[in-house]
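@channel anyone free to eyeball this complex?
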Amino acid sequence: MLGSGIIKGLAETGRNFVGSYFDPERMTTVEYPEQRLAPKENTRQFPFLVFDGEAALAGLRCVACQICEKECPPQCIYIEKSREKKPDHLGKPQFHPAIFDIDISVCMSCQICVEVCPFDAIKMDTEFELSTSDRFGGLLMHKDLLARPNSHFLKVHPTDAGVIDARRAEERARLEAKARLDSEAKAKEAPPAA
Amino acid sequence: MFQAIDQIFVNLLRGFLGHLPEPIRPWAGLVISLGAILGTFGLLFGLTTVCERKAIARMQNRLGPNRVGPYGFLQFIADGIKSLTKEDIVPRSADKVVHFIAPLALLVPVVLTYLVLPFGRNMVVLDLDAGLLFYFAAGASTELAVFMAGWSSRNKYSLLGAMRAIAQMLSYELPFILSTIGVVMVTGSLSTVRIVEAQGPGDGWLAHWNVFTPWGFAAFFLFLIAAFAEANRSPFDLPEGESEIVAGYFLEYSGFKFALFFMAEYLGMFSSSALAVTLFLGGWTAPVSFLGFVPSWLWFFLKLGVLMALFIWVRGTTPRLRMDQLMDFAWKFMLPLALFLIPVVVLWDRVGRGWVGWVLCGPIVAAAYVWLGRALVGRRRIQLRTYRYASG
Amino acid sequence: MTTPSQFAQYLPVLLLAVVAVGFTAGMLLFSVLLGVKARRNPVKDTAYECGMRPEGPGSARFSVKFYLVAMLFILFDIEVVFLYPWAVVYKEMLAENAGLIFGSMLSFMGILFVGYFYALKKRAFDWGSST
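replying in thread with the prediction:
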């Protein structure tokens, strides 16, 4: 009959209205600055650059390969390669970024840079309280602002970071084992030659 | 004692006027009562906006505004200051004069309708013989202001919103006025004060409110639905449908002019609710005779509050209607039903009040409701929609 | 007490209208004094159409249905206005001349319903695409 639908609807909203005062489980929102939702592991906001060790700029994993710069859909990344090379964590000589800028007012948080990075150097941060009073300069992040230690990465994305750390440790171990084998082989070869 | 509290405002005004010189007394009395009405309903407007936001938030399991003042109840002051300090932008293509006059032309008739509303015993500014007619005349002229706003903006969305608003308000004006005919018939007067007095407590313990009759019950809901549409409130908010035409006829208004539109909408809602209270819910009279000691103005504002809560509740519940549903509902359901109620009133009046009247008139009204309702929705059978690609 | 003249009776209406106009105009003036006055530019001054540049005239042509509704309203509204005086005198007339009051209203409503059904059958009330 005409009008039965609206009574059903009024009953539903009335139930919600009363229920919201007695049942805190119903509430879909929290009062933001005082209360916060528990962080979710796969949250992503804007990229940051991972570094190892203590020194932020010296320990950047980034080798300035510029893949992320080319892949970035809104083209918010700007990279300039350094002139000289320096050894990475495996001892291989690599370039490093002289300039690494991300304009986070342009970034759309798509995570493609993270997908394409072969060095696990760029990852997504969970930090979202980035508002500034400077509309143009304040949202252009240079590499010193972008650099975060690996411990931060471990904190925000523990699973992801654990897998990467394990792989890197394995790579280094394999390299060290290879070096040891090489040196042993060299040592074996050496005496007869001498 | 109860008499004193009941008449406290009347006596205060009379006492104050006693100190003034004789010739200006009626004028001063008018100005003071007008100021009191504007102040009271201005404050009520502010509080209602906050209550509405909080109530609708609760219906959606949110908290709503709770930062400004205790429990967020001073939010309306913050909003008012904000709208006062906003920049006022008038598009270059707009008709500047009409664009400026429209919010004034909208608010003034709405305020005028308050003149004939009795807020309590002896608390009416102007007891006109043709009070009800004056109310409808003043109320109907808001439509002109709405069209002025939409037309002068020179904006397609505003104009479309104004056209929709006019079509809707005109269509619902008919049931709005027709549903009150029965009240006029049983009272024999257009004076709002006489209408309220006729609904006062009779010989029994139950008051003779018009809503306690079969035709009055139906007419009350017809009136209320039409009042929803006149106030452009959900589910009849097509003229300001945000998702289609941005904000409708007041799209090009910013700053305080926007606030004036907002205020006119709420004041119109109050005044039509107050008229519903006056016509059907017995105005300032108590529903049962043993509650007669409660001050009359308290009864009035209590009933007004209940109707406002209903307005808010419905807004939190219903989605927007479609244009053809809107028109069908007005012309094919509400108009015939409102016309049909007139003979029912005659029947009720002839056979007398009481159970005989109920037995005779109740089923007739119910049958008319069911039949018209079936004629309205029965033709188009509502079924689950099947999608070609998305389902499965 | 003498009945006040028509003008005196409606004087408060005029007074309230003046008060209301004064109040709204005063608030508007107040907001002009307090409000921000930012720089204007051509883009800001155009009509707001969701960020698109407004195309064509601001006053587009409209479906004839809107005008049909307006005409139907005028027809029915006049009939409603005729109902009011009838409703006011209904009780008095009932005691004096019941036949006249019922007869007049029945014939009036009859004509009204004929017009209503004609409009209904002509699909004047239909808004959908079926017309």
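from a first look: The two ends of chain A are 106 Å apart (CA to CA).
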